[in-house]
Design a protein that fits this description.
Length: 492
């Protein structure tokens, strides 16, 4: 192989690392736009995709520098303090380095012998995460002997996959025959109307009709009420259904508010119903002393999912499903593949039996690298900071005359609306126009969401460099765009 060798790797890395460090540096300094979009076909030309794919040549002349320049310039600049958009992590550089190492050595996480180092890291990271939930009862996370008193877990490529895996485990617990006989038709799931759509997809994949999701009543902020859960359970039973699982949001995607886990866990434990906590975003509160109370009662649940690529700063993808009872994890999948599940003189352990995916990346190494650089306290401080600064931004925005926030944030997700619009204007449609114009300008990146039937502007404060000054700048930009929309609208 002419290029696939150690010398080329070294030469490439020098150029790539220089371009990337320059990129991180100007992004963090708020240089250039956070998002510089151009039409997709123009971007394909700018990237010179056609010629490069046909003829190669990336390593000749200035081709690599030209490619990287265009590629990075037209990326979403997550390190930019004006990146206040989705729940996707501003990646820690340690995670990036772990990605690189994995890319070079490519040890998949399925069977121990294909990547002992990565497998050991995955197991220790599972133990560390279980410990945060209260399902690992020893001090030493590197004690990898099987102890039935501990919980168990496995990394998955994303929270959607983790939700599906947890629900398959819940189904195996209530209806183990489903594996050979198909899903029984009397199973239902209970949750709130603001569930993440991955739950709906998981149900469809599992052959459950959408009307087997029983919606529990929520309060004025879309938070599940205990009474709503009790009523939904009673409704299911009156209809001759068995409740396969109750799902709580910790926190919801749109508002970042937490369902009352402890109250609902008490009901589920009393009724012997599987409780699943969708902590894709908000399980991170477990790390923060000031915010841990939001997850109170999580140890009474049966399963939890948690995305590292949201609040634990890893690049995509890196998620986990955790179980209180290790036997539940073991019962999830019952399929055998003779080329892997054969009797052997085992050194180590195989993870393949517990995840839907056969081949997986060594994603736990990304979390490990961040912890190994920052320490537990460093990661905890990041979460605490993001949650605390969002409350400051809430105060700042809600005290500004032409903006309002519908609820006090609990996490780093904040919804708000611009209010200085005429009665005749559709309030929600106006927010959407504001958001679209703002994103097209490219100086700020925020999102929108539906809350109680109206579109709201939405911030997810993922970047620890975003300050009150940046938020004031954002409000000014919104006002400027609002004036321009108002002056261009036909007068009624
Ligand atoms: C509450 C919740 N659950 C699940 C998911 C799905 O996670 P992923 O995007 O990693 O598949 C998300 C994603 O935003 C989420 O907010």
């Amino acid at each position: 192989m002419k290029y696939n060798n150690a010398e080329t790797l070294e030469e490439l890395l020098k150029k790539v690392s220089s371009a990337l460090s320059e990129y991180v540096s100007y992004s963090q300094a708020g240089g250039a736009k956070v998002l510089d979009q151009m039409p997709a076909s123009s971007l394909a030309k700018d990237l010179n995709v056609n010629e490069l794919v046909k003829d190669g040549g990336l390593l000749q002349g200035e081709a690599l520098q030209n490619f990287l320049q265009s590629y990075l310039a037209h990326s979403q600049h997550m390190h930019h303090p004006h990146y206040i958009g989705h729940q996707v992590a501003v990646p820690h550089i340690g995670s990036g380095v772990a990605d690189l190492i994995h890319g070079v050595i490519n040890n998949p996480m399925a069977i121990y012998e294909m990547g002992p180092s990565g497998a050991v890291i995955e197991k220790t990271m599972i133990n560390w995460l279980l410990k945060q939930v209260g399902w690992y009862h020893a001090d030493d996370i590197s004690d990898l002997g099987h102890d039935p008193h501990h919980g168990a877990g496995v990394f998955t490529h994303g929270g959607s996959m983790a939700n599906l895996t947890a629900l398959l485990a819940a189904r195996a617990a209530i209806a183990p025959e489903a594996w050979t006989e198909g899903a029984p038709s009397d199973l239902v799931i209970i949750g709130s109307s603001v569930w993440h759509y991955s739950i709906s997809r998981a149900m469809s994949i599992m052959g459950m009709p959408q009307d087997s999701f029983y919606t529990a009543d929520v309060d004025q902020n879309d938070v599940i009420t205990a009474a709503g859960i009790e009523q939904a359970i009673a409704r299911a039973r009156t209809n001759g259904k068995r409740v396969m699982a109750v799902i709580v949001n910790a926190c919801t995607t749109s508002t970042g508010l937490y369902d009352p886990i402890e109250e609902i866990a008490t009901i589920c434990n009393r009724e012997s119903i599987w409780l699943h906590v969708d902590g894709a975003h908000g399980a991170a509160a477990l790390l923060s002393e000031a915010d841990r109370h939001l997850m109170k009662g999580v140890e009474m649940a049966d399963s939890v999912i948690w995305d590292m690529h949201k609040m634990l700063r890893t690049s995509t993808l890196c998620a986990v499903v955790l179980y209180k009872n290790a036997e539940h994890m073991a019962a999830t999948f019952q399929q055998k593949g003779s080329y892997i599940f054969h009797e052997k003189e085992a050194v180590g352990f195989d993870l393949i039996s517990y995840s839907l995916e056969c081949t997986k990346s060594a994603m736990a190494t990304k979390l490990f690298w961040i912890l190994a650089i920052e320490g537990e306290q460093g990661l905890a401080d990041y979460v605490s900071h993001q949650y605390a600064i969002t409350k400051e931004f809430y105060k700042l925005i809600s005290e500004t005359a032409d903006f309002t926030c519908p609820y006090t944030p609990e996490s780093n997700i904040l919804c708000f609306v611009y209010t200085d619009i005429s009665e005749e204007q559709d309030k929600g449609a106006f927010q959407l126009r504001l958001r679209n114009a703002l994103v097209n300008e490219g100086h700020y990146y925020i999102t929108s969401c539906d809350f109680r039937g109206t579109t709201h502007l939405r911030l997810t404060v993922m970047n620890d460099l975003t300050s009150g000054q940046h938020i004031l700048g954002l409000l000014d930009a919104i006002r400027r765009i609002a004036e321009s929309i108002k002056s261009s609208s036909p007068k009624s």
